Each structure stands twice: as C-alpha cells, then as structure tokens.
Amino acid sequence: MDVVNQLVAQGQFTIIKQPLGFIKILQWIFAIFAFSTCGSYSGMFKMSVECKNRSESDLGIEVEFEYPFRLHQVYFDAPTCKAGEPERLFLVGDYSSSAEFFVTIAVFSFLYSMAALSAYCFVLEKYRENNKGPQIDFVVTAVFAFFWLVSSCAWAKGLSDVKTATDPEKVITYIAACEEPENRCREVYDPKVSGLNTSVAFGFINLILWIGNLWFVFKETGWMAAFSGTYVPSQEKQPAPDSFGQQGYGQQDPYAGSQGGYQPEYGQQGGYTEDQGYSQGYEQQQPTSYSNQM
C-alpha cells in the first residue's frame, strides 16, 4: 500500500483532463470492447430436415461456431432420408486470419494505451524531455491508426463472409436430402451476429480515436514550431536580452544627453529672472542719467 500511495502522490493526474490523456482513456476502453466482442463470440443456428419417411427426419439440426471462425472445421450430421447412417457435412470457409488480426491489434492497442497513460501520469517530465517521448508516441500512434484501418476493413469483409457461410438457407443446399422434392428442409433459427456487428463498429471508432489523437501528440513533438519557423536550433540561438544592453538597443541616445537641445536653467547667474533684470537695468542707467544732468 505504501508503494501505491507513493505513486499516487507523485502522479500528475491533471493530464487526464487534457485531450492528450483523455483520448488515451477512450482508446483503452474501446480497445477492450473491440477484442471482447469479437474474441468471445460463439453462435449457433438450427435447421430441420423433414423426410418423406418421418422416422428418418431430423427437425433440430444444431450447428455451433465460434471465434476464430475456422468454419471448415465445423461439422454437423444431416439425415439422408434413406436407410443408413446420416451424412457428415462441414461449413465452408476459414476466416480466422482477419478475426485474429483484428483481435491482436485491439489487444496491443489496449496495452500501449495503458502504458502511454502511465507515462503521462508518472513520468511526464521524462516523456517531454528533448521531445523524444512525444516523437516516439506520434510514430507509434500513426502505426496503430494505420493498423486499425486495415484490421477493421479486413474484419468487416471477413464478417460479411461469415454471415454468408453460416446462413441456414445456404447451408441447406449442402444437404443431399434437401434436393429431393418429397423432402422438406427449412431454417429454424438464425445465428445472432449483433455482437460481431458491434465489434466492427468498435473497430472504426478506434480508428477515429487514434487518428484524432495524432494531432494532440503532434503538438507535443515540437515539430509545429520547426515548421512555422519559430524553432531556433541550439547552435544558432539569438543573444540573451541582457546582451542588448551593451550593443544595439542599450546604447545611449546621442540626442537624449543633458547638453543636447535647448534646456535653459533659470536658477543660474547666466539665466534671466524678472527681479534681476529690472534691478540691474536700474543700477546701470542711474549713474549715466545723473552724469548727463551734470
């Protein structure tokens, strides 16, 4: 418990509220839905063969199939409406490759989402150090987005083929007794494939999530600044703001000095004051006027 409490105390769980972490939670959840709805599927359908001789009829032929949908290994016994043993028939098709590929991508997406989310919460500083973590995360996210596209399309096509191969009306055509007009063959119960349809939907939802996550991971890589021209390599960095105090903007303006421009100082002797002006003029003129009178 101490280790868990320490991890929780050191965790930065605010990242979960941001798109980068929140989308990872959605990817984790929908990956579980994808591989669980496909990998845990099992289905069954029923047919009936009513022979002219009622004692040889079989009104409840059950055929079960499941993941990974190797249908060519699924067999059932059908009456021949003749004396003797029933014939053993097999379904047609092997769709395990697309189904297993889809489930594998879902499982690895689940594991990577959980690992990436743990890195966001507990080692976010190391993740963002030198932008190596976001760049690796972006490449892996792009790869998973591509694989989700391929696997979802492949499994959608594989599911369509599974539906066709397990259609009771189609399987009835494999029974030799149903070719006889006096015998009556019909489907009793169709397989329920709603869970498989949901798995395909979850696959394309995961595709949207992983493609959408590319943008938020790309913003963490620092490539956006490089593309916009604002990224400055370490060997070409501009001088620090303090260096402008020595050269350039920090130099003294030649026109801002104390001697530049006309700035009279009225308190000095060379200046002009109202009282001194009248007093000096009176003292200088008084003797002159007196001498003239003499």
Structure description:
- This protein is mainly α and 294 residues long.
- It has one domain (10-226).
- Helix content is 53%, strand content 11%.
- The chain has 9 helices and 5 strands; from the N terminus they run H-H-E-E-E-E-H-H-H-H-E-H-H-H.
- It has helices at residues 2-10, 19-39, 96-122, 124-128, 132-165, 168-172, 194-221, 223-228, 274-293; strands at residues 42-50, 58-66, 75-78, 87-90, 184-189.
- The chain has a 3-stranded antiparallel sheet with strand order 2-1-5.
- Strand 3 and strand 4 form a beta hairpin.
- Helix 2 packs antiparallel against helix 3 (96-122) and helix 3 packs antiparallel against helix 5 (132-165).
- The longest helix has 34 residues, at 132-165.
- It starts with a helix and ends with a helix.
- The chain crosses the membrane at residues 25-44, 101-124, 136-157, 200-218.
- Belongs to the synaptophysin/synaptobrevin family.
- Keywords: Glycoprotein, Membrane, Transmembrane, Transmembrane helix.
- One of its GO terms (cellular component) is synaptic vesicle membrane.
- Residues 276-294 have a biased composition (Polar residues).
